[in-house]
Amino acid sequence: MSTNYLENANTNNQHVLKFVRETAELCQPDQIHWCDGSEAEKQALTEDAVAKGVLLKLNQEKLPGCYYHRSSVNDVARVEQLTFICTETAEEAGPTNNWAAPKEMYAKLKGLLAGAMKGRTLYVIPYLMGPLGSSLTKVGIEITDSIYVALSMRVMTRMGKVAYDQLGSGDDFNRGIHSMLDINPDRRYIAHFPLDNTIISVGSNYGGNVLLGKKCLALRMGSYLARKQGWLAEHMLILGVESPTGEKTYVAAAFPSACGKTNFAMLVPPAQFKGWKIWTLGDDIAWMKPGSDGRLYAINPENGYFGVVPGTNYKSNPNAMETIKRDTIYTNVALTPDLDVWWEGKDGEPPKECLDWKGQKWTPDSKEKAAHPNSRFAAPMRNNPVLAPEANDPKGVPISAIIFGGRRGTTMPLIFQSFNWGHGVFTGATMGSETTAAAAHAVGEVRRDPMAMLPFCGYSMGQYFQHWLRMRKFIAVPPSIFHVNWFRKDEKGNFLWPGFGENMRVLKWIIDRVRGRVGAVESPLGWVPSVDSFELAGLKDFGPAEFAQAQAINVEEWKREALSQEELFFKLYADMPKELSYQRELLISRLV
Ligand code: GTP
Ligand code: SPV
Ligand code: MN
Predict the structure, then answer these.
(1) Which of 204, 284, 331 most suits a substitution to test ligand 2, by most atoms within 8 Å of the C-beta?
(2) Where are the domains of the chain?
């Protein structure tokens, strides 16, 4: 192309123009597409993606507006080992992050990006994280050579002109550069430069690595900024609970990747809970800031859901099923002969024959899974039948309860409530969870995943805990903090708790607690429900005995748990707030 990279620019923001020109000079694309977020643009880009074989048009009668994408086999999840926080010193990034000196990382990435977009189109994606006009909302400009990213960002963020409107002539925007290169794990880096508000991602085309507004901006850069500015950027869903009398209570919940946030955020209460309704604010990320009334207010910075597909069905998550019926991009699920999609755990019988996520013939006798365990949907949040109208409110919603939860086959009871904020921070900080397919690593090992933020905290984890403790001073009416575990198993390896919609029963106790309507019993871990105050009516095969089993606190298991926390305390020793060590001592004193 001509070297006048800016000839079709749709903004006159000088800082954006300079950023695009410099990036184009480095990457040397054949052409530049300036995204405007319009419907016509969506259609044109979609047609182009289909023509290029990046997307396949699904059966439009069954799935209007839906498309299918297959990733490279080596590129199916986030890559924590290739994710870097490039602060000035390694101490700032802390012992749980990979660190690289900014200068060296820039040099390496510039080398990889030089000429990387030859023969390709460079897309300029202006986007907002957060509703227009919110004091928390951030502007990002992502430059990418992936049409899949351009189309996915349109679903996941408020993309287009709206971002230029919010930005005005200033330069307060996140600079994101993404190139697929040759999608080779040897040349894959997800690098964050908090000091320059810049993210560079190369060598991948998988969601969490390349939709830079999401984990990179909203969590890693977000948490870094939040600490400086006195707010919280968290890996949390946000939901509203409406009672039969119309009272609304909002909660936020942090569960690690693939541990139930989307499901919980879209929960359908069981028949027992007549007149109760759950509204979704967000399913993955919460930005929370103290309000002038002393409460903690939350917004969801996203505009869509990038959700785990396998296991989604009309029983587990009917609202997700409705949401992904149209205008959805499916990645790495199975494809049936009539151009429908299939996955393990979908309603109905498996297809007699289909193509698996790798494009190979699959039958029910095949040993491998048809859909990748981390296959995903990208669907606009407006499709969600229970989308809370407040999801677009710039003010956000006041949070009454924060829930932490991990995937634990043993040890962790179904529900307990922390004694107070500091104890709640300890509970979140020492959270453990079995690893899942959402990141490339061994699956099923318990690791400490503090507040579900281990892969997403943009600075030293110990300082992050200090920030959480300090925030209490700015929140006159702090949310109560709870811990849940949907995944405890019996001796035979079956889940003890039915989960999904039935989680309403746990949520109801939480709401009653924060509304001061129900008492609780003291345990070594915190406050727990008595069997009488927990709604069991209407549950099949789950009575008081099963409740006791799900709630059991086994002292021997808890001694092991306290011992395994030690590793985290050692690792974070340099920055670990002493309050948390005291909390641990107190826990131990309650156990022996
Ligand atoms: P990310 O998008 O990776 O952050 O995941 P997420 O936290 O939103 O998890 P999601 O709701 O997609 O659930 C992931 C997996 O957990 C799916 O396979 C679900 O079927 C399963 N799951 C969710 N809720 C429950 C539950 O209450 N009980 C059980 N047993 N499994 C659940
Ligand atoms: C997660 O892994 O927590 C996700 C999916 O929500 S990703 O966007 O890939 O991070
Ligand atoms: Mn997530």
Answers:
(1) 284
(2) 14-52+81-229, 234-304+388-591, 305-383
The CATH number of domain 305-383 is 2.170.8.10: yes
Q: Are residues 558 and 411 in contact, defined by beta-carbon separation less than 8 angstroms? A: yes
pTM of this prediction?
0.98
Token readout for 574 is: 């340099």
- Ligand 1 atom 27: the closest Cα is on which residue? 499
Mutate to test the pocket of ligand 2, among 192, 214, 329, 377 (most ligand atoms within 8 A of CB): 214
Q: What is the pLDDT of residue 2?
A: 58
Mean pLDDT by 10 residues, the chain (592 residues): 84 98 98 98 98 98 98 97 98 98 98 98 98 97 98 98 97 98 98 98 98 98 98 99 98 98 98 97 98 98 98 98 98 98 97 98 98 98 98 98 98 98 98 94 93 98 98 98 98 97 98 98 98 96 97 96 94 97 97 92
User: Which ligand sits nearest to residue 208's alpha carbon?
Assistant: 2
Task: Kindly list the protein residues whose Cβ atom lies closer than 6 A to any atom of ligand 1.
Answer: 255, 257-263, 283-284, 307-308, 310-311, 316, 438, 486-487, 495, 499-500, 503
Question: Which run of H or E residues covers position 483?
Answer: strand 480-484
| CATH code of the domain occupying 234-304+388-591 | 3.90.228.20
CATH number of the domain located at residue range(s) 14-52+81-229 in this protein: 3.40.449.10
Let me know if 259 is a catalytic residue.
Answer: yes
Is the Cβ atom of 270 under 6 angstroms away from ligand 2? no
300/261 Cα distance (integer angstroms): 13
In whole angstroms, what is the distance from residue 465 CA to residue 447 CA?
Answer: 18
Q: Which two tokens stand for residue 198?
A: 């810049």
